[in-house]
Amino acid sequence: MQIETKDFFFFFAKGPDVTTYVENGIADIGVVGGDIIIEHQPDVYNLFPLPFGQCRMALATKKDYQWPDQKKRIASTFTNITKTYFKEKGESVDIIKLEGSVELAPILGLADAIVDIVETGNTLKENGLVIEDEFLAFSARLIANRSSLKIKREQLVPVIERFKEGAKQR
Ligand code: PRP
């Protein structure tokens, strides 16, 4: 979906692609989930949090699941976040990368557990999964291309300020 106004051109893209468009200067600014920023560490100005899209990262598995004695298998789209989480716990696990529908992995026996974002908790509930641990809370964030912010400062600062004002009012 695209929207064009007198001064701006807006387009919608998948989260990880938003950072790619902003990183490459195709978009001057972007709105993206904090999870994407933590996972992919894009080379952009990570400006400030916005008051929507509040989520947290969770380790979840089947209810009453008997964890195996051997190395755990953890499925996730967020492999870097998962790696860091288990590294900090001093635990070695096998991480299986999935692109979506991560909640299927424990049900189908691909993994012992998943690391995924949780907002309402409905997806986990619908799939009979329970949260073992919650870590990292984040929301949507405003990001900007590094060069754009210097070159187009006069145009962009008022827009960024409006985002900031809007965020304060919520
Ligand atoms: C995320 C996540 C869960 C869902 C959690 O998926 O992977 O599937 O949201 O939200 P809930 O706790 O409110 O149920 P998303 O909607 O971002 O789509 P994706 O599967 O394409 O990543």
From TrEMBL:
GO terms for biological process: L-histidine biosynthetic process. It catalyses: 1-(5-phospho-beta-D-ribosyl)-ATP + diphosphate = 5-phospho-alpha-D-ribose 1-diphosphate + ATP. GO terms for molecular function: ATP binding; ATP phosphoribosyltransferase activity. Its EC number is 2.4.2.17. Pfam families: HisG. It is found in: Cytoplasm. It comes from the Bacteria. Its main location: cytoplasm. One of its GO terms (cellular component) is cytoplasm. The keyword Glycoprotein does not apply. Pathway: Amino-acid biosynthesis; L-histidine biosynthesis; L-histidine from 5-phospho-alpha-D-ribose 1-diphosphate: step 1/9. Keywords: Amino-acid biosynthesis, ATP-binding, Cytoplasm, Glycosyltransferase, Histidine biosynthesis, Nucleotide-binding, Transferase. InterPro entries: ATP_PRibTrfase_cat, ATP_PRibTrfase_CS, ATP_PRibTrfase_HisG, ATP_PRibTrfase_HisG_short. Residues 16-164 form the ATP phosphoribosyltransferase catalytic domain. Belongs to the ATP phosphoribosyltransferase family. Short subfamily. Heteromultimer composed of HisG and HisZ subunits. Catalyzes the condensation of ATP and 5-phosphoribose 1-diphosphate to form N'-(5'-phosphoribosyl)-ATP (PR-ATP). Has a crucial role in the pathway because the rate of histidine biosynthesis seems to be controlled primarily by regulation of HisG enzymatic activity. This is ATP phosphoribosyltransferase.
